[in-house]
Task: structure prediction
Amino acid sequence: MADHLEASVTLPSDPASVAAARTYAVGTLTEWGLPSDTETAETVRLIVSELATNAVQHTLGQSPTFTVDLVLERDEQLRIGVTDSHPRFPKRLPAAVQQDNGRGMVIIRWLTAECGGTLTVRPTREGGKTVWIELPWTFEDRPVTTAGRRES
Result:
């Protein structure tokens, strides 16, 4: 495989774009050799979904689009970035039991840490921000069953 692969898509800041972002990310990673039925693919799907949802819901109409970037370095590290043009960085919200939303960044941080990755948020030159997730690129995981559990 190549030392460096990149892919990017810019989508309208619309709720329907969240599914498109998930599909794009997993489809691209499948082209790069990651089977779509693995735990890693499911993790990426969930991370992209949560980041895209945040880009749509929390930019208060100030970001007409968001961009999903995927970067694979030397078959060792996968970087997932979601960029929007709103200057406010994500905040940790107190998780009230009755609350229906506000847990996205908690989920993303937990999944990232569980995979041995890191999360960073960086400002863009244009005044927005990119949330970057860096994950080890491995194929050690097994296929996910229909119940969402790894096969033994």
In short: The longest strand covers residues 4-12.
